TrEMBL record:
Protein source organism: Paenibacillus chibensis
Gene that encodes the chain: pgmB
Family: Belongs to the HAD-like hydrolase superfamily. CbbY/CbbZ/Gph/YieH family.
A molecular-function term among this protein's GO annotations: beta-phosphoglucomutase activity
CDD domains to which the protein is assigned, alphabetical: HAD_BPGM (cd02598)
NCBIfam families: bPGM, HAD-SF-IA-v3, PGMB-YQAB-SF
EC number of the protein: 5.4.2.6
Record keywords: Isomerase
Superkingdom to which the source organism belongs: Bacteria
Stated name of the protein: Beta-phosphoglucomutase
Keyword match Isomerase: yes
Length: 218
């Protein structure tokens, strides 16, 4: 039976991708090149430093480690400023209702995010009380598609990975779930998330009953 649900943050529970985009775009412009919304798709679910490497690749820049750390810090300061103004209105449709339903059904809930800023976002949107475990970029060593973030979540919940379902909007996140030995539901398009057990376009399509139908207890 399914005993726990693990949620990615950015792109599943909140749309912070737009703030990441604004901050990366501002950095690219300062460095003298353009960064499009389509370019930004490549950064979803990817860690901060790996995102910077992709961005610099687009600009054709090759910089030393020290300069890169300073640029990543600069981008993050802008991003932190944007998310400091977030509130509950930025929780994605269907997310709260689904979390509430899971809680009522006694299903354990964890966060599994790559972001080092996850706590700020959860605090500002008042979502902290829904989580039995919170694993974010401050607690992990390896980035998705490494399964670490989800395995730590299952461990903290004391639930077997086979009894966990991961909700993810990024291909690397679905891959991480598979490597963790967990079931997964993609939130987004079938084209990129086809490896998940099922794909929904938003959590509005999810319910505890759909979860039980998808993964019936044997
Ligand atoms: P930060 P998720 C990820 O969050 C974002 O999708 C990705 O775009 C971002 O670069 C990464 O977090 C690191 O975020 O710079 O705040 O530490 O989708 O895993 O919740
Ligand atoms: Mg995501």
């Amino acid at each position: 039976p399914i005993r726990a649900c693990l949620f990615d943050l950015d792109g599943v529970l909140v749309d912070t991708a737009k703030y990441h985009y604004l901050a990366w775009k501002r950095l690219a412009e300062e460095l003298g090149f353009d960064f499009t919304e389509q370019d930004n798709e490549r950064l979803k679910g990817v860690s901060r430093m790996a995102s910077l490497d992709i961005l610099l690749g687009i600009g054709g820049l090759n910089l030393d480690e020290e300069t890169k750390l300073a640029l990543a810090e600069k981008k993050n300061a802008w991003y932190v400023d944007y998310i400091s103004r977030m509130d509950e209105s930025e929780i994605l449709p269907g997310a709260l209702a689904f979390l509430q339903e899971l809680k009522a059904e006694g299903i354990r809930i964890a966060l599994g995010s790559a972001s080092k800023n996850a706590m700020t976002i959860l605090n500002n949107t008042h979502m902290v009380p829904y989580f039995d475990a919170i694993i974010d970029g401050t607690k992990t060593v390896s980035a998705k598609p490494d399964p670490e973030v989800f395995l730590l979540g299952a461990q903290e919940l004391k639930v077997d990975p086979a009894e966990c379902v991961v909700f993810e909007d990024a291909e690397a996140g679905v891959e991480a779930a598979i490597r963790a030995g967990m079931r997964s539901i993609g939130v987004g398009s079938k084209a990129t998330l086809g490896r998940a057990d099922d794909v929904v376009s938003s959590l509005q399509e999810m319910s505890a009953s759909r979860l039980m139908e998808l993964f019936p207890a044997r």
